[in-house]
Write a structure and sequence with these properties.
The chain has 299 residues and is α+β, with helices and mostly antiparallel strands. The protein has 9 helices and 10 strands.
Length: 299
Amino acid sequence: MDISMIQFEQATAESSFLGTIEPEVLTSEQVNTVLNQLTSTIEIYTLVSLYFTQVNRYLPLVGIDMSEFDEQLNAGLLHSHSAVSLPVSAVRLEQGKHAAFVRYIFDENLSPSQRRVLATLHQLFTRPLTHAMEFQRLRLMATKDPLTNLGNRNGFNEAAQRLINRNTRNGQTFGLLVVDLDNFKQVNDKHGHQQGDVVLETTASILTDTIRGHEEAYRFGGDEFCCLLDVSCPQELSAIAGRIHDAMHTHPLLKAHHVTCSIGGTLLRENDSMGDLFDRADKALYEAKEDGKDTYQAA
């Protein structure tokens, strides 16, 4: 890799070089070790964590900033007095104008030999990174609802199982709300499916805004939605359901179409499977519908 591609940011303090002389290039054994680690996963967050550990073995690395790729795709400390940015030419930003950069943060300035080691490591990283990003893109397509941009049923299943596994590890519970629109069919019948889609998109926005900071909303299918929530008691779950009802009642579009929602909710119980959890909330939703709609029932 052409070292002139490396963009050095201005240091704010004098550098203190390593006490030992670093090799100018990695040995074949070291390269194989790094490659074996980087090709052991296709999951992008795991890959970045493994890569951080590998770079840290050879260089005074304290952090990797990849926020251009993903706001949450970082490792270690992101603030220090010396940083190096290297491009990944195979990955383009959405505008397509220039490559995305990996920003390496160090606790001291690098020597010329250390810069060559960094260039070698970065080159080893780029191919596994592009594969992991493509895998993430395909997985998101498989778990996202294209109309509302919420997670779909596959996304819900993955997230629910992840939370159940978390409960097994540390006992942290969570809640589920199943939300079904009232009077939605008449929107499609009277105004067409295009207006029905607008109602679904509006509902998705309301759910996302209302539960923000707790967990996520999903479009389970048709006009049914699910919310996985970081709550620990029935009162918290009921309060969020109440806020969803209030937001639905006050939205001009939903008011105009007389669209409300019925909600069933439950907390995870000991030894619950994902099916147990959903069936209980779904039964509560059915009871809410039977009670005249536009209400909340807990199970």
